[in-house]
Amino acid sequence: MKFRTIKGTKDILPGESALWQYVESAVRRVMQSFNYQEIRTPAFEQTGLFARSIGELTDIVSKEMYTFLDRSEESVTLRPEGTAATLRAFIQNNLGEQSPLTKVYYIGPMFRQERPQAGRLRQFHQFGAEALGASSPQLDVEMMVLPLEIYKQLGIDRFSLKINSVGCEKCRPAYKQLLQTELRKVFTQLSHDSQVRVEQNPLRVLDSKDEKDRELTAGMPLMNNHLCDECAVHFASVQSLLDALELTYEVDGRLVRGLDYYTKTAFEITSTALGSQDALAGGGRYDLLMEELGGKQTPGVGFAAGLERLLMVLAKLEKNITASSVPVIYFVGLDEPSRIWAFLKSNELRRQGICAEVDYLGRSVKSQMREANRMQARFVIVVGEQELKTKTARLKNMQTGEETAVSLDHITFPS
Ligand code: AMP
Fold it and tell me: Within the chain, how many helices (H) and strands (E) appear?
């Protein structure tokens, strides 16, 4: 074969798409019940939007973005995540003027040039939500509840929720200095990646996956013990709301997440059913990001969750979801006039919303029956010269084998 998918991208084939639709409709259902409206932003944006919001020094911006010059020499980037574009759309379209709180969700492809492996793709799909305009800790908790509710409705209950507070512009600088002083003491023993981060983004050294780094930083001060009063109160409120909702969580002082824009709450949901790439969803508050992108000061909080990861968990748990549409009726035509009649009749039924199927390949009666079976059609009607003349035929229930007489002018299906 001449052409293949690009490394790290995948086709979603007809046999799989029904499952995607099933999961997506659970996402939409839950989002709607929490009163979130869908937003669809373009798949590519000006490069500066992502560099500015996610942070120049993050892995995403420094190593993983699909960035290129278009034909008019403008630098554009395939979106690596959904928050920056949502905020750009909010600012550009003055959404803040229409209502004091904007609650939106999205579902769509994201692009990151990561090393492909199980659970890590270069084009993957996320669903997520953003609530813009309020600093209430209730919304931080809502961002955790939303994905958890979606997982619950899909039958997934084995997950772990980790939360942290990464502070704000008032308390983080002093803590950063304190941490840097500690990190400099062990600088030469740190991994190369962590050494780079000590000066520029020291908090990220704490969530390094490198074993040695973790050992070296084990006793180091954590942000959640150095919060200002406002951040401490906010973090305590988040925890008491989670307690009130009886949601199990763990405070993980090392959780900082890979994006620079978070303030106060950060969280991650992992699944025990997944291997090394176990992150299902993550999110947090970003009260300074709107201004950073040129908008009015607007607090915000959001989450993003991987769809492929969710489908992997469903596959691991062997959830038996048969969401594919199967024909209600399959017409078997005995001769050419019957085939044409069946084609026209199935069009009529389809316009009434009934899934009807016919043979387009001129197959024998036997193989048409086999095809109806393979498609798991609920009913079959065999039509020939005789049936067309009398306008009656036998409707066969494929599950029970039972046959009943039907009028070809008014086909009705027993329930
Ligand atoms: P992030 O925006 O990095 O916080 O990612 C949010 C969620 O998206 C993760 O928890 C994963 O479920 C999913 N995700 C992130 N990157 C990838 C990837 N390269 N391939 C598949 N899923 C991903």
Answer: 15, 16
pLDDT beyond 80 at 1? no
pLDDT in tens, 84-99: 999 999 999 999 999 9
Q: How far is the CA of 214 from the centre of ligand 1 (A)?
A: 23
**Beta strands 379-383 and 356-357: pairing type?**
unpaired
Position 294 confidence tier, pLDDT thresholds 50, 70, 90 = very high
How remote is the CA of residue 81 from the centroid of ligand 1, in Å? 9
Q: Which atom of ligand 1 is nearest to the CA of 304?
A: 6
User: Looking at the chain, which residues constitute the CATH 3.40.50.800 domain(s)?
Assistant: 329-407
Nearest ligand 1 atom to alpha carbon 120: 20
Which regions of the chain carry the CATH code 3.30.930.10? 14-171+227-316
Is 280 touching ligand 1 by the criterion CB < 6 Å? Answer: yes
Mean pLDDT of the chain: 93
Tell me the CATH class for 14-171+227-316: alpha beta
Atom from ligand 1 closest to the CA of residue 269: 10
The answer to whether residue 262 scores a pLDDT higher than 80 is yes
Digit-coded pLDDT (tens) for 223-257 = 999 999 999 999 999 999 999 999 999 999 999 88
Cα angle 201-205-206, degrees, rounded to a multiple of 5: 120
Is ligand 1 within 6 A of the CB of residue 79? no
Looking at domain 329-407, its CATH architecture is 3-Layer(aba) Sandwich (3.40)
What percent of the chain has a predicted confidence (pLDDT) above 70? 99
- The rounded Å distance from CA 280 to ligand 1 centre is 7
String of b and e for 183-195 (b: at least 16 CB within 10 Å)? beebeeebbeebe
Highest mean pLDDT among 110-124, 183-197, 335-349: 335-349
* 3-class SS letters over 13-57: CHHHHHHHHHHHHHHHHHHHHCCCEECCCCCEEEHHHHHHHHCCC
- Under a CB-based contact definition with an 8 Å cutoff, are residues 393 and 382 in contact? yes
Residue 331 CA to residue 268 CA, distance in Å, equals 51
Average pLDDT value for residue range 3-28: 94
Is the CB of 59 inside a 6 Å radius of any atom of ligand 1?
Answer: no
